[in-house]
């Protein structure tokens, strides 16, 4: 038997009642907390979560007393055990050397994890975290910001859909001007600037071209022997029949507007510059 058609008035009235019922229903917020507060992106993410209607900030955990003393005045400090018991989502904002350890702790406790970049310093270590997340059936999100950049997303889409023809070259640069006090932190890892900032661009290159067949790094240390930071870095990624050239150096004043991501093809190109806010030229 066919149902009688609804009149416009009846439909609108029914929709209004349903909308009112949904609005009256309290929205459950995800309980989230920070494991580590020493990373440079912590303060922005802390402020964002504090204002978000989607999350309830249960508290912060920081092992280093000196870093904890610099934390927000209104912070609710928890022990590691308390944080893992109270939060559904753990946001890892500790020093880079602790990223993998803290992510593993949270995943072992059955929590979803947002892991600040860069993740573990080795590929086997990274694969191990991914395997643990799958085993625990938890989400593991890495803080690669260009994954949500509409300019880069559209540039990659243009390449994937063949709008640019056959891609033969990808070029990308991400520089900054690093304070001297932070150079030792970046110098802890052999990749230096490429590890700390170039990783964002390597991620975008791999999304565009897939895994490279070969990678050749050039890691220059301009201040050696004063410090060991690789502060003028280039990586050439070979993806036959294409190449990618990624550069990163924490030596450039006013570097933000000069950052770019570019895909060159036989029928056209896509260039995003600046990266934030993105401006795309096809």
Could you characterize the architecture of this molecule?
- The chain is α/β, with parallel strands linked by helices.
- The protein is about 35% helix and about 25% strand.
- The strands form two sheets. It has a seven-stranded mixed β-sheet with strand order 7-8-9-6-10-11-12, with helices on one face. It has a five-stranded parallel β-sheet with strand order 2-1-3-4-5, sandwiched between helices.
- Helix 5 links the parallel strand 3 and strand 4.
- The longest helix is centred in the C-terminal third of the chain and has 18 residues.
- The chain is globular.
- Terminal CA distance reads 55 Å
**Helicity, as a percent range:** 25-40%
| Count of discrete alpha- or pi-helical segments spanning 4 or more residues | 9
Main pleated sheet: 7 strands, mixed
- Determine the strand fraction and express it as a percent band: 15-25%
CA-based gyration radius: 23 Å
Strand order of the largest sheet: 7-8-9-6-10-11-12
Overall geometry = globular
The total of beta strands comes to 12
Unreliable stretches covering 5 or more consecutive residues = none
**What string gives the helices and strands in order?**
HEHEHHEHEHEHEHHEEEEEE
Mean pLDDT: 91
Structural class: alpha/beta
């Amino acid at each position: 038997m066919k149902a009688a058609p609804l009149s416009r008035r009846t439909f609108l009235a029914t929709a209004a009642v349903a909308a009112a019922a949904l609005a009256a229903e309290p929205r459950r917020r995800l309980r989230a907390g920070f494991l580590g507060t020493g990373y440079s992106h912590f303060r922005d993410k802390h402020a964002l979560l504090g204002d978000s209607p989607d999350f309830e900030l249960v508290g912060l955990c920081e092992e280093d007393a000196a870093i904890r003393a610099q934390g927000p005045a209104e912070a609710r400090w928890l022990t590691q055990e308390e944080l893992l018991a109270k939060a559904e989502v753990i946001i890892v904002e500790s020093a880079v050397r602790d990223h993998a350890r803290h992510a593993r702790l949270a995943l072992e406790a059955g929590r979803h994890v947002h892991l600040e970049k860069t993740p573990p310093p080795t590929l086997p270590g990274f694969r191990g975290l991914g395997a643990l997340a799958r085993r625990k059936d938890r989400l593991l999100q890495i803080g690669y910001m260009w994954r949500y950049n509409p300019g880069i997303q559209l540039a990659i889409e243009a390449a994937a859909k063949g709008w640019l023809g056959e891609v033969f070259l990808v070029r990308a640069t991400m520089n900054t001007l690093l304070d001297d006090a932070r150079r030792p932190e970046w110098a802890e890892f052999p990749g230096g600037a490429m590890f700390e900032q170039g990783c964002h661009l390597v991620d975008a290159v791999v999304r565009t071209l897939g895994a490279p067949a070969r990678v050749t790094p050039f890691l220059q240390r301009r201040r050696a022997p004063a410090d060991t930071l690789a502060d003028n870095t280039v990586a050439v990624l070979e993806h036959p029949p294409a190449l990618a050239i990624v550069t990163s150096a924490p030596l450039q004043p006013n570097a933000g507007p000069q950052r770019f991501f570019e895909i060159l093809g036989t029928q056209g190109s896509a260039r995003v510059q600046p990266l934030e806010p993105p401006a795309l030229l096809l």
